[in-house]
Amino acid sequence: MRPTFHQLELFREVARQGSFTKAAKKLSIAQPTVSGQIKQLSQGIGLPLFEKVGRQLFLTEAGEMLLDSCREMFDSLDRLEMAMADLQGQRRGRLKLAVVTTAQYVVPKLLGEFCQEYPDVDVALRVLNHAQLSDRMGSNADDLYVLSHIPEHVDLEFQPFVDNSLMVVAGRSHPLALQAMASGGRKKIPIQKLANQDFVMREPGSGTRRAVEEHFARHKLSVQVRLDLSTNEAIAQAVASGLGMAVLSRHCLASGITNPDLVPLEVEHFPIRCQWYVAHLKAKQLSVVAESFRDRLLHYDEFSEHQLIGSPSLVMS
Ligand code: PGA
After folding, report:
1. Torsion from C-alpha of 155, 158, 163, 167, nearest 10 degrees
2. CA 45 / ligand 1 centre spacing (Å)
3. 266-304 pLDDT per residue, tens
4. What pLDDT, on the 0 to 100 scale, is given for residue 258?
5. H or E, element range at 27
6. CB 104 near ligand 1, within 6 Å
7. Residue 152 lies in domain
8. Stretch (H or E) spanning 53
9. pLDDT digits 0-9 by tens, 37-91
10. Which of 90, 107, 141 is at the close of a domain?
11. In this structure, what are the phi and psi dihedrals at residue 291, rounded to the nearest 5 degrees?
């Protein structure tokens, strides 16, 4: 027996929610209807699609395979819908994006402009760290990704987007900040001076953390991590209140975080030159909407938008 479209929609929602009850609630239908339809679907296929361990619902191997096909099918229908709308001179549909935390200071702004221009486009934006983002790629859940380090385990198409330099920052009364101030910010701090300093770092799995650790290792230094925190904002607050130094993306300093007690320092071999990329799975066919947002990203000129805070320098008044 062939699955019906309705059954596949229900199946996808149960898999998403990990629960019959939650799926029924989300779709505003009775729970027995959902279980009945999934039972019929599974009978038609001849294999169980879910198994219950304790109170948790898991997909079986057959369920995983069906979910992959469902994604492709619904994706393809979405693309078709968007292509038809495009033929009618309208831009509408769904755009699913996932970006690393440092990009959250730039991408939403461009997204805002895009949505104003195309009010019929629905957007889902996830902000994650590098490890979470690359895990997510395995499930083909998004149209586009913005990230700094291209993972090796996924086949991606990617293009450079904007520079994402990482700068050393310290609290205003940190000894190295005071020293820099005494020299009028003219002399760069030797990188070796960072070796015995306490650092506030992003959590393991963060691309920023990885870039910092690799950079220190290249200079035969190790980072002394006093504290790790999972957001750039929390790090900025911790550093400003004297908990140690940190390395943060220039974008965090430019737009997301402004704290007069947080100062960028001129250190030898810094900033770390990183780069964001706009990427998508090679196997993924982009919708008209996703392509047009990707073009928007690739043509973004931050200089003309006055987004840049310039090359790192000691800003102390
Ligand atoms: P993160 O990633 O949010 O994992 O630190 C930043 C980056 O890779 O640019």
Report:
1. -10
2. 42
3. 999 999 999 999 999 998 889 889 999 999 999 987 766
4. 65
5. helix 20-27
6. no
7. 91-163+275-308
8. strand 50-53
9. 999 999 999 999 999 888 889 999 999 999 999 988 998 898 898 888 877 767 7
10. 90
11. -65, -40
Distance between Cα 207 and ligand 1 center (Å): 4
Quick one: tokens of 132?
Answer: 């979470």
CATH of the domain at 299: 3.40.190.10
Q: Whose CA is nearest to atom 2 of ligand 1?
A: 207
Q: Has residue 314 been placed in a domain?
A: no
Q: What is the pLDDT of residue 310?
A: 39
Boundary-marking domain end, from 68, 90, 112: 90
Say if 31 falls within a structural domain: yes
Same domain? 70 vs 17 = yes
Tally of structural domains, the chain: 3
For residue 231 and ligand 1, the question of a CB distance below 6 A is answered with no
Token pair, residue 149, equals: 């380090």
Report whether residue 134 contacts ligand 1, using a CB cutoff of 6 Å: no
**Together in a domain, 146 and 281:** yes
How far is ligand 1, taken at its centre, from the CA of residue 309, in Å? Answer: 19
The three-class DSSP label of residue 243 is coil
Residue 184 in any domain: the answer is yes
Tens digits of residue pLDDT in 119-175: 889 999 999 999 999 999 988 889 999 999 999 889 999 999 999 999 999 999 999
